[in-house]
Design goal:
The chain is α+β, with helices and mostly antiparallel strands and 369 residues long. Helices cover 23% and strands 33% of the residues.
Length: 369
């Protein structure tokens, strides 16, 4: 177990391609850190830098008390679990799990005991003498985890290990992985493009885009207090609604004005004075749009027409179009009595709304003190 720290780490590949751009990330001992972002954002490269499979162009990587920039992978005492499982097809499960112990010269009795302990922990004890081709995807994933766990490393590195599993198995395996982390208490760094996995697994989440980390925080922090429009839109299913408009003042209170839509933004009064008459982007999550008035907020209503209804069992997603032409999605309870082409008045819980700048960074004005 160990603290892992990246300090101003940059990785530039041939062709002047910057995969990781001046990243600083401090992962506490025993923490489960999830690095999440779209394909090509640099998250796997960052994991490979920690593992020693790539060398940083600049900056330092520390594991425990040691800077490991020049330390070979085999001497970093970290275990990596790959997307494709990385099992030797000609070896049994037992041989695959014992392989790293054999390389380090452990006695056969110790290897047998350790492999059997880990196999019991993962519920694959009866599979030890099968070969990978005789296993399901979920069983192969457990064996890959077992290969990492038997070493008792300082840190686990997970490179999208659940992406080859079907949707249902991904959910159950993610829950098992989180429970396993609580038992082992080993520092874990997990890379994924799946925001649901990130929210489920992470003690904290680092959100990446184009080689840079945009936000680091708990799942609740990145969901409820996104620092910019990218983070806000990346998390949530359906994703956050965004509408462009202008800040106007009515007396002492700012309003968001877009076509026929006028919304009172009384919850962010001190932060919008500098944005009067400027264009901004309002963000509201689908679960914060209601079909009946909200106490004290009856003025924040929009006339809409229902275009599409998606029934998803535990909720209904309503695809709406306002009189001003804005496209919105509302996530409501299945009992909602709504039909296609129906005219509705929807009510926004404006206390949950965010106001973003319109430039590329899209900073969340609502969070600026």
């Amino acid at each position: 177990m160990a603290r892992v720290r990246l300090e101003n780490v940059t990785k530039i590949f041939d062709g002047n391609i910057t995969a990781v751009d001046n990243v600083t990330l401090d992962i506490a001992d025993r923490e489960f850190m999830v690095i999440v972002g779209p394909s090509g954002c640099g998250k796997t490269t960052m994991l490979r830098l920690i593992a020693g499979l790539e060398a940083p162009t600049s900056g330092n990587i520390t594991i425990g008390q040691s800077i490991v920039n020049e330390t070979p992978p085999r001497n970093r005492d970290v275990a990596m679990v790959f997307q494709n499982y990385a099992l030797y097809p000609h070896m049994t499960v037992f041989q695959n799990m014992a392989f790293s112990l054999k390389l380090h010269g452990y006695a056969k009795a110790h290897m047998k005991k350790r492999v059997e302990e880990v196999a019991a922990l993962l519920g694959i004890g009866e599979l030890l003498y099968r070969k990978p081709r005789a296993l399901s995807g979920g069983e192969r994933q457990r064996v890959a985890l077992g290969k990492a766990i038997v070493r008792n490393p300082k840190a686990f590195l997970f490179d999208e290990p659940l992406s080859n599993l079907d949707a249902r198995l991904r959910i159950t395996t993610a829950a098992e992985l989180k429970a396993l982390h609580r038992r082992l208490e080993t520092t874990s760094i997990y890379v994924t493009h799946d925001q649901a996995e990130a929210m489920t697994l992470g003690d904290r989440i680092a959100v990446m885009r184009e080689g840079a980390i945009y936000q680091i925080g708990t799942p609740l922090e990145v969901y409820c207090r996104p620092v910019n429009r990218f983070v806000a839109g990346f998390f949530g299913t359906p994703s956050m609604n965004f509408v462009r408009g202008i800040i106007r003042y009515r007396g002492d209170y700012p309003c968001f004005v877009s076509g026929d839509t006028i919304l009172l933004l009384s919850h962010v009064v001190p932060r919008l004075a500098a944005y009067e008459d400027k264009t901004v982007v309002l963000g509201i999550r689908p679960e914060h749009i209601f079909l009946r008035p909200i106490a004290g907020q009856t003025q924040n209503a929009i006339d809409c027409k229902v275009r599409v209804i998606e029934y998803l069992g535990n909720r209904v997603d309503l695809y709406l179009e306002s009189n001003s032409g804005h496209k919105l999605i509302a996530a409501r309870e299945p009992a909602a009595d709504v039909r296609v082409d129906q005219h509705l008045v929807i009510y926004l819980d404006i206390r949950q709304a965010h106001v973003f700048e319109t430039d590329t960074a899209g900073r969340n004005i609502s969070l600026v003190l």
